[in-house]
Specification:
Elements (H helix, E strand, L loop, with lengths): L1 H6 L20 H12 L2 E6 L2 E6 L2 H8 L16 H14 L5 H18 L5 E2 L1 H18 L8 H15 L1 H9 L1 H9 L5 H25 L7 H14 L9 H32 L1 H14 L15 H14 L8 E2 L4 E3 L2 E3 L4 E4 L1 H5 L43 H18 E4 L10 E3 L3 E3 L5 E5 L5
Parallel strand pairs: 2-7
Antiparallel strand pairs: 1-2, 3-11, 4-7, 5-6, 8-11, 9-10
Helix pairs in contact: 5-6, 5-16, 6-12, 7-10, 8-9, 10-12, 12-13, 12-14, 12-16, 13-14
Bound molecules: protoporphyrin IX containing FE.
Function: May be involved in the metabolism of insect hormones and in the breakdown of synthetic insecticides.
GO molecular function: heme binding; iron ion binding; oxidoreductase activity, acting on paired donors, with incorporation or reduction of molecular oxygen, reduced flavin or flavoprotein as one donor, and incorporation of one atom of oxygen
Membrane topology: Peripheral membrane protein
Length: 458
């Protein structure tokens, strides 16, 4: 024990039992960044009874994301051989369309439906609610093989539950570090734990219903993720390869993870997109002039068009950097004693990558608080390059499995919206870039937006 404590990187002291938890505010990534100024780029602190190491600069983050001893999640979050499940998940998602044009077609159809909801005769639109419904449909297509009508009560309930879970995540995050406190909170129904429990139940029973429907369908075709998982399960059973880790419960857990991870992240990124489009109308015009040159105003965009749209891509890179929607990644755990740079990381230490610090490091980004898409462009604007230290989806063998899907969605939403509308706010509206931080970092004051139809000659 003494050896372990001594071998951790230095860091701030906390209180007995709770450690540094009581000192953490709403925007933990800012505090983690501040602490790195005092203790160095890699330091440790105690959260509850857990030793946690923070990684806050690019050289160490680069090293850590390529370290095979840092691929695990905390014991409470993983529980099954994730490597196999991850490989299978990616394989199934690829079969049903991820990385192929099938998914692009379905996403485009969904966006067509979404665009009609922005048409409000020049009146303002509650964008966050509308995009959240639309993005939920995209994940539903991937997982369940179908989407929902926007006024379907099941879709409304699941979308609201997901949003509530996401905004309570700071609270849930604290619970992850204090399991004993979490059981007390639920037992005595403190805070709004009862509501939260209900939200989890809504999502859970929705996924359960979908699984039952797929089982009853009993078809050979693999159209979606649940089909793929059930087919693999059946083929294993036929080969007598019974495996407790391959069960309906695990399928439910995986589907929940995709549902949770694929909605809030895209909705929040799109909310930042709207903020910076209305804050800088000149960037809106630049994207629209690329649309005019490459796509025109009649044809639907293809994801492939991005290759000829450097400014649009530069804008998306800068949104990822300045928005830092996933400001610090999901917890990792050291599966054996290891090192990050010269720092010792003992087995079972939890590790947090603070992407925020890297995204705002003035050594990497001159004037880091400025929103400036041109930082990715060649001098004449003809080429765009993403630097290696911009990793919104994390990096290495446990990076975001939804990255490809997310890239397709973001490009198509932005281009489809600007091909049809000029995005505006009411005159005199203040546009704030302040953030709220729950499961993701999103604008705290997205103004109500006006989508003004543009004529094709523009
Ligand atoms: C702008 C959009 C998104 C961003 C910025 C983002 C970012 C991330 C990051 C940083 C991680 C943690 C990786 C690590 O531990 O190093 C992650 C994990 C994950 N993401 Fe995403 N993501 C996005 C969209 C999506 C979408 C659309 C999906 C699904 C369709 C998805 C599914 C997942 C899943 C399932 C995990 C957990 C993977 C694992 O434990 O192995 N994400 N994401």
């Amino acid at each position: 024990m003494t050896f372990r404590i001594r071998s951790l990187p230095a860091g701030p002291w906390g209180l007995p039992i709770v450690g540094y938890l009581p000192f953490l505010g709403d925007h933990v990534y800012l505090q983690f960044d501040q602490l790195s100024k005092k203790y160095g780029p890699v330091y440790s602190l105690k959260l509850g009874s857990f030793d946690v190491v923070l990684v806050c600069d690019w050289p160490h983050l680069k090293d850590a994301t390529s370290n095979d001893a840092l691929l695990a999640r905390p014991h409470s979050m993983s529980g099954n051989p994730w490597r196999e499940h991850r490989r299978l998940s990616l394989h199934i998602l690829r079969d049903v369309g991820l990385g192929k044009s099938t998914i692009e077609t379905l996403v485009k159809e969904e966006i067509d439906q979404f665009l009609t909801t922005l048409d409000n005769d020049g009146e303002s639109v509650d964008f966050k609610k509308k995009i959240s419904r639309s993005v939920t449909n995209n994940v539903s297509i991937l997982l369940f093989g179908h989407k929902y009508d926007y006024d379907d009560p099941a879709a409304i309930a699941i979308s609201a539950s997901n949003a509530e879970i996401a905004s309570s995540f700071n609270f849930a995050g604290v619970m992850a570090f204090l399991p004993w406190l979490s059981s007390l909170v639920f037992k005595f129904e403190l805070f709004n734990s009862n509501r939260l429990k209900k939200c989890f139940k809504t999502v859970d029973s929705h996924i359960q219903n979908e699984i039952v429907k797929h089982q009853e369908k009993n078809s050979q075709d693999v159209v979606d993720y649940i089909d793929g998982y059930l087919a693999e399960k059946k083929s294993r059973e036929e080969r007598n390869q019974i495996d407790d880790n391959f069960s309906i419960d695990v399928l439910k857990r995986n589907a929940t993870a995709f549902y949770g991870a694929g909605n809030e992240t895209i909705s929040s990124t799109m909310a930042w997109v709207m903020i910076y489009l209305v804050k800088y109308p000149e960037y809106q015009d630049k994207i629209r002039s690329e649309i005019a040159d490459v796509i025109g105003f009649e044809r639907r965009p293809d994801y492939l068009d991005r290759i000829r749209m450097p400014f649009t891509m530069a804008f998306i890179h800068e949104i990822h950097r300045i928005g830092s929607v996933v400001a610090n990644n999901l917890l990792r755990r050291a599966s054996s004693d290891t090192k990050i740079g010269n720092y010792n990381i003992p087995k079972d230490t939890l590790v947090i990558f603070n992407f925020w610090s890297v995204n705002h490091d003035p050594k990497l980004w001159p004037n880091p608080d400025k929103f400036d898409p041109t930082r990715y462009l060649a001098e004449d604007g003809s080429k765009v390059a993403k630097p290696p230290h911009l990793i919104p989806f994390s990096a290495g063998k446990r990076n975001c499995p939804g990255e490809g899907f997310a890239n397709v969605e973001l490009f198509l939403y932005i281009v489809c919206i600007l091909q049809k509308y000029r995005v505006k706010v009411k005159p005199g509206t203040e546009i704030s870039t302040e953030a709220a931080f729950g499961l993701s970092r999103c604008p705290s004051n997205l103004p109500t937006l006006i989508f003004e139809k543009i004529s094709n000659s523009n």
